[in-house]
TrEMBL record:
InterPro entries: CHAT_dom, TPR-like_helical_dom_sf, Znf_put. It comes from the Bacteria. Residues 838-986 form the CHAT domain. Residues 7-35 form the Putative zinc-finger domain. It comes from Myxococcus fulvus (strain ATCC BAA-855 / HW-1). It holds the Pfam family CHAT. This is Uncharacterized protein.
Length: 999
């Protein structure tokens, strides 16, 4: 009790000065002990009134008190007779104590008023009485989820919030009660994402928490992450109202408008006041707008195609302004197919509109050139060209040859484009494109040249050419062609196993195609984004892109085959073999080829049983693929698919096919498809050895897969292949032990705990240190072995990778106190203290000097590299974590695994990456790709890095490990011993378990 509490009796007796009385009233409303004392005093006084007083007089005193203490304009509640209502029996008033009665009644009303005011404050916390809501999403906290119309803030980024200020007393009360979700909701409804996130992350996992975290991800521009969270919520609680609504918002934000409409339909069926009606309006609008766009685009394409067959067809001039891409694409064919000079000149108004969109007179000049041709010779060729475009020409190849000899170069160029024969006649195609002096055609030629360079193995030339073409692509009239170049560049990056860069191009192209309203391009980018998401094991996003694609073109047989075979593969990634088989059957309904994804899926499903129909289907699929003249890397993948399928019923033949696939792949070291095949086949062989109980063979196969020698003792091999896992080891005495499991029910997360059974962990207990041979995606996960063991991941170097000289003969590079770009809003890290004993070989890069270029250059001759900086993991920017450094003059600030991998570190350095999540990477199934692996491949001997976020104090931990290594301790023992020391001093420092060693 505070000192004010001593004044309660004076207040009751009316003996306080007016100012003190007013202060005490405010204190009374917030002090539980005083309120309790007031209640006891009132009970005693009222007991006396009941014994001695007059109830009507007392009621009048109470009404007087109400009028005194109620807020201005507030009327006291009355019963039917007009008397202030009360749940108590009538009071008898003591005539001798009117002042005391007034004070006591006033005090009771004071408490009641403040209680009522408390309810008002509670409503104000979550803006429950506001006329509109400030965020579009639904918060999974009951008192914050009332429906009100959505009124988005009109202020720009960085503008001060216009939301009512949070009542701090109410927040304090919520925190006292432990209602952290209520606090998070209060911040969330005001759009304060940072504060809301802080409180949500203090909550235990739950469907409601994940719903609200998804809101933050959506508002921060991470819709794919938001979608994954919401799908997880709906798996736990399918009727979660807020998650259903928010999922619809996320799908709409991703541009998946028909799926969003379906999601809003689900909200409509719930019949929730306000929300269901708003959902109905939104669903109707999304569906109508999307379908109307599709109809308009198809109408524009049909209108310009009509020009080839109907001389009276109208010129689609308005369509050319709205859809310049598809109209221009078909315009070229209309000009080529013009049957006469007049027929060509009739197209001049359309040429002028299209030129007006882009600028210049390229298309007008083209029409005039064609109109000047000799139509006595040209007209028959033009007529056959129209048949070629419509697919009505029986023998295209002889016609192409006739066009080549005809001298009608634009017809020949169009024929090569239409028949996709440019790659076979590349010299002719590039010459004709150059002579056309048309940027649209020139960009098409650049795309074909890049394809030829990629097929020749010069992918770096193809990349440079395509990037230059995208950079030079300017103007609305060329936007369609620019988007197709981005699609081609995205394809190249996927082929090179660079999905982050593929996503950058595909997402940009997707946004551009939506802005252009290019319906068919949108379809292409939906499938591209699905492919990238599947590659990165982002199953939720991949499934959404595919289903939107199917919803837009449900009647196209080829589309249904494509979507269902890929949905089948996604179901397999989620360990749902039954759903995978169901989707695969839907994919076969049209009788179209299943392609490579279908062949691979059939080979995996054979683990759960395959019949003669499956065998026939696989044989047909492989035959179709082999007839299509696939690349050598794809041929190796086909051998792998066949071998894995056959292995389940003919072990000897299956093993032979898998070994053959490895031989094919190892001859193609730079081919991504070959690398996938090699690792996949080794993984299957290792699991087969484990299934047969041959731990020694399993261990040898894992060593071969990683290209490392297998030690004779204290070595552990671990691999996971979907539902299967295999563990093999040699203990301190060289004894062999193994474990095989085929009952995994879910994909690996970010931890490997539980993969190695306790009995096998115990067998390594006498080892001074343990070498771990882990195939992807296990490689680089934390928690594989207990912290009392000294262990490290072994990293093999591909043939031709850098191999440094002996360690210890170079500089000691320290990157410290980096001046990160201000726009990132990162807190400044504390600078390291200078070394106590001095270090003559130490070189520091700090502040604005610590740019990526300077750091990369300084690492080449360093024997120790320490980087103390912020780390980041963004799948949109890189497939491995990034180190945030000072910006270059052109703004680049990130040190990436790709940049490190390209180096040759001459001094085999010890590398300490004291950055958050430096060892985190996209979990590819066929290779390990992370910053630590990149350093090893560049020539480093040892890398220490974290898989988790780390505090500022982590720098001291890394330095302490380094000092132990300098003193001669093996790196694995140095890490284990310093971890023990650190935990003794800091028992709650769980992050030290996320520091891993790579050698």
């Amino acid at each position: 009790m505070g000192s004010l509490c001593n004044r309660l009796s004076l207040f009751l007796d009316g003996e306080l000065a007016p100012i003190d009385e007013e202060n005490f009233r405010h204190h009374l409303a917030r002090c539980d002990p005083c309120a309790s004392g007031l209640h006891e005093a009132m009970q005693l006084e009222l007991l006396g009134f009941q014994t001695m007083g007059d109830s009507r007089a007392l009621a009048q005193e109470e009404e007087d008190a109400l009028e005194t203490w109620m807020p201005p304009g507030a009327a006291p509640a009355r019963d039917a007779a007009g008397v202030p209502s009360s749940g108590r029996a009538p009071w008898r008033r003591a005539r001798w104590a009117p002042g005391a009665v007034g004070a006591l009644a006033a005090a009771i009303v004071l408490v009641l008023v403040f209680k009522s005011a408390g309810r008002e404050v509670q409503q104000e916390v979550w803006l429950a009485k506001a006329s509109s809501r400030l965020i579009e999403a639904r918060v999974a906290y009951g008192r914050a989820d009332g429906h009100r119309p959505y009124a988005p803030l009109r202020a720009g980024p960085g503008a001060p919030s216009t939301a009512p200020v949070l009542p701090l007393r109410a927040l304090a009360d919520l925190e006292d009660r432990g209602d952290l979700h209520g606090i998070a909701a209060a911040y969330l409804v005001r759009g304060d994402l940072r504060q809301a996130s802080d409180f949500l992350h203090r909550l235990p996992p739950s469907a409601d928490r994940d719903n609200d975290l998804a809101i933050i991800a959506l508002e921060q521009g991470r819709p794919e992450e938001a979608l994954a969270l919401l799908e997880g919520v709906l798996r736990q609680a399918p009727e979660h109202a807020q998650a259903q609504w928010n999922r619809a918002l996320v799908l709409r934000e991703m541009g998946l408008t028909l799926l969003a409409a379906e999601a809003f339909d689900a909200v409509v069926t719930r019949g929730e006041p306000g929300w269901s009606e708003e959902a109905r309006i939104r669903a109707t609008a999304l569906r109508h707008q999307t379908q109307a766009r599709g109809r308009a685009w198809k109408g524009a394409r049909a209108a310009v195609r009509d020009l080839m067959v109907d001389p009276r067809a109208r010129l689609p001039l308005e369509e050319a302004k709205r859809f310049p891409g598809i109209v221009r694409l078909a315009f070229y064919d209309a000009v080529r197919a013009a049957p006469s000079r007049e027929g060509a000149l009739r197209l001049l108004p359309l040429a002028d509109v299209l030129d007006g969109v882009q600028g210049g007179a390229v298309l007008r000049d083209y029409v005039l050139r064609v109109s000047a041709r000799d139509f006595g010779r040209r007209a028959p060729l033009a007529a056959d060209y129209a048949k070629l475009v419509r697919g009505e020409l029986a023998s295209p190849a002889p016609f192409l040859e006739a066009l080549r000899r005809s001298g009608e170069d634009d017809l020949y160029l169009g024929g090569l484009i239409n028949q996709m024969a440019a790659s076979r006649h590349l010299e002719d195609f590039t010459r004709l494109a150059r002579e056309a002096e048309d940027p649209w055609v020139s960009l098409l030629a650049e795309r074909e040249l890049a394809g030829a360079e990629e097929r020749a193995g010069a992918w770096w030339k193809a990349e440079a050419r395509l990037r230059a073409a995208v950079g030079a692509c300017q103007g609305k009239g060329l936007s369609y062609r620019c988007a197709t170049l981005k699609k081609r560049l995205s394809d190249l990056y996927l082929a090179l196993n660079r999905p982050a860069e593929a996503f950058e191009q595909a997402w940009s192209g997707w946004l551009a195609s939506r802005e252009l309203e290019e319906w068919e391009l949108e379809q292409q980018f939906l499938q591209e984004l699905a492919h990238i998401a599947r590659y990165r094991l982002e199953v939720t996003s991949a499934r959404a892109y595919l289903r939107e694609s199917l919803a837009r073109t449900p009647d196209l047989c080829e589309q249904r085959t494509y979507v269902h075979r890929n949905l089948a593969y996604l179901s397999w990634l989620e360990f749902d073999a039954q759903e995978a088989r169901r989707e695969l059957e839907l994919a076969q309904a049209c009788g179209r080829p299943l392609g490579l994804p279908g062949a691979l899926l059939l080979s995996y499903l054979a683990r759960f049983g395959a019949d003669s129909q499956d065998a026939d289907l696989l044989r047909r699929t492989l035959s179709e693929l082999r007839r299509s003249q696939p690349s050598p890397g794809k041929l190796a993948q086909l051998s792998f698919a066949e071998g894995q399928f056959v292995l389940e019923h003919d072990r000897a033949t299956g093993l032979e096919l898998l070994r053959g696939a490895i031989q094919q792949a190892e001859a193609l070291a730079d081919d991504v498809d070959a690398r996938k095949t090699r690792m996949g086949a080794y993984n299957v062989l290792a699991h087969e050895a484990g299934r047969m109980g041959d731990a020694g063979q399993a261990l040898a196969l894992m060593g071969a897969a990683l290209q490392v020698d297998v030690p004779a003792r204290c070595v552990l091999g671990v691999a996971v292949d979907y539902e299967r896992s295999v563990v093999a080891l040699r203990g301190a005495g060289g004894e062999l032990l193994g474990h095989f499991d085929a009952s995994r029910a879910e994909p690996l997360g970010r931890e490997a705990s539980g993969l190695v059974p306790p009995s096998l962990q115990a067998a390594l207990g006498d080892c001074e240190r343990v070498d771990v041979l882990a195939l992807p995606p296990v490689h680089g996960l934390r928690g594989l072995l207990p912290p009392d063991l000294a262990w490290s991941y072994r990293v093999g170097r591909p043939a031709g990778a850098a191999r440094g000289a002996a360690a210890g003969s170079g500089t000691h590079l320290v990157v410290n106190a980096v001046e990160a770009p201000a726009a990132l809003g990162l807190p400044r890290l504390l600078p390291l203290a200078p070394p106590l004993g001095g270090d003559s070989q130490r070189i520091e890069l700090s502040g604005m000097q610590a740019t990526p270029a300077r750091v990369l250059a300084a690492m080449v001759q360093a024997s120790e590299v320490e980087i103390h900086a912020h780390g980041a993991f963004s799948p949109e920017m890189s497939d491995a974590s990034l180190v945030v450094l000072a910006p270059e003059p052109d703004g680049r600030y990130a040190l990436s695994a790709a940049q490190v991998r390209a180096l040759k570190l001459e001094r085999a350095p010890l590398v300490l990456l004291a950055t958050c999540s430096a060892a985190r990477a996209t979990p590819f199934l066929h290779e390990s790709f992370s910053l630590p692996v990149a350093f090893i491949e560049a020539g480093a001997s040892t890398v220490l890095a974290s898989t988790v976020e780390i505090p500022d104090s982590a720098g001291r931990f890394f330095e302490a490990v380094r000092e132990r290594i300098r003193s001669g301790a093996p790196a694995a023992q140095a890490l284990r011993d310093e971890r023990r020391t650190w935990l003794e001093a800091h028992p709650s420092a769980d992050w030290v378990h996320g520091i891993l060693l790579f050698e």
